[in-house]
Amino acid sequence: MIRLEFAEGYRFMQMLQRSWTPLMAAAFAVLAGLAAQPAAAEELAKDLFGAKKLPAVAAPQSIGFYSTGCFAGGVAIPMDGPYWEVMRPSRNRRWGHPAMIGLIEKLSRDAAADGWRGLLVGDISQPRGGPMLTGHASHQIGLDADIWLTPMSDKRLSPNQREKMSATLLVDEKTHLVKEALWTPQHALLLKRAASYKEVERILVNPGIKKKLCDTVKGDRAWLRKIRPFWGHDYHFHMRVGCQPGSPDCKRQEVTAPGDGCDQSLAWWFTDEPWRPAKNPDKPKAREMMTMASLPRGCQAVLDAPAPSSAEAATYYGGASIAASAPAAVQPPVAAPEPAITDGAGALPASANAFAATPEIGIPLPRPRPGN
Ligand SMILES: [Zn+2]
């Protein structure tokens, strides 16, 4: 059998040689030219990463920045845990760096002990991170997670409810102040607990929520430094973890300014300026235009890496066992110059960068997502 195939292959080669004409040579030249074109570089990164249903099997590694990157070795948080439920599961954004997934599970337990029934887990990342087809500017390196500011109810949500249940907005859209009837001390406790972890570098909340904490937190206020006001984030908070060991190409964000942030940088949010309509509301956002050339070089290897056999095989159960085998790390090519970080600034109200002293300059800018 093998010999026969070999013989046929040999005959095929002979035939090729006999029919080698200038015409074929020309055709080969055209094909070679096509292959040399960087077709993949032209494709949008959000389409390439958005199409990946499973993570890159490799040692865990975040590559690039929160708003310009990807990650390998991602694991999924299970749909259900004793103290959490995954929301909007059809989006397939329950993936993160194992440190992030472990931390969400820990937060769910600690918060339950504090009196918060359980977490409704929103978007984390796509299986291999990268820019998304819809939504966030950040969440690209497996180190950002959205947690709803509504606790689990005593009855498990059905898959349909997880897709459809509308979120409760805790902030009045006109005054930008917290709705007093909805705010509870447990909300403050949950945010304090999340901020207590050394891995967590920032927590983004609506300015109204930051103000509420500024006005009411007594005693230890050091943790308020991590709580950063930002657009949106009125039904969920956004927990951001710092670069983890084993990620030499993870780009750190700026250190937050000292102090509790209950100062003029917060007062700015209660002026008209941050809320003026954008001058160019239809201008494409950075994540919508990124190609592979916009991302760090290592992200191509992440895109090309093998997948585990199933999502279940890469689901993280309580830190004790990660089902996915972790063979050799994805080898990113030799370092290339980092692309400029473009953030989502173009998507923000025109005035967003007017005050250099505002807290979020220089960090990735998650877009407000009205209605979800
Ligand atoms: Zn977020």
- Kindly report the average pLDDT value: 81
Class from secondary-structure proportions: alpha+beta
CATH class term: Alpha Beta
Span between N and C termini?
A: 60 Å
Q: How many β strands by DSSP?
A: 13
From the 3D structure, determine the CATH topology: Muramoyl-pentapeptide Carboxypeptidase, domain 2
Helix fraction bin: 25-40%
Task: Spell out the helices and strands N to C.
Answer: HHHHEEEEEEHEEHHEHEEHHHEE
| Beta-strand residue fraction | 5-15%
Can you list the ligands bound to this structure? zinc ion
Question: Helical segment tally?
Answer: 11
Order of the strands making up the biggest sheet: 8-11-9-10
How many domains is the backbone divided into?
A: 1
Uncertain spans:
1-38, 319-372
Shape designation: globular
Structure explained in plain terms:
It is built from eleven helices and 13 strands. Strand 12 (about 315) and strand 13 form a beta hairpin. Helix 5 (about 100-115) packs antiparallel against helix 7 (about 185-195). About 25% of the residues lie in helices and about 10% in strands. It is of the alpha+beta class and about 375 residues long. The protein has one domain (about 40-355): 2-Layer Sandwich (Muramoyl-pentapeptide Carboxypeptidase, domain 2). The site of zinc ion has 6 residues, from strand 8.
